[in-house]
């Protein structure tokens, strides 16, 4: 965190922006491992602000969004990763999980609505 803060506020020189994007992306990966999905999504988003084509940050944000049950946004991030790198195993696996979670959520919603209007 100290390294990210030391880079300073925008606008940043290109080299510093690249470094800061890498630091944010790395911090997001660590936060995911620690189970801090919201913080990971925030840092991955900051990395993407600095470098929109950063696949690691996009993947991390997708995984974090899935953990927070923001399934549509997670799907968008993971599909973007797969468009850029079609063989990305992690993105393929996570996208499958997101689709499964969305199906389960939709089934539960349909059941609840059915009970409500029965």
Automatic annotation (TrEMBL):
Superkingdom in the source lineage: Eukaryota
Matching InterPro entries: FKBP4/5/8-like (IPR050754), TPR-like_helical_dom_sf (IPR011990)
Gene3D superfamilies in UniProt: Tetratricopeptide repeat domain
The protein's name: FKBPL protein
Gene: Fkbpl
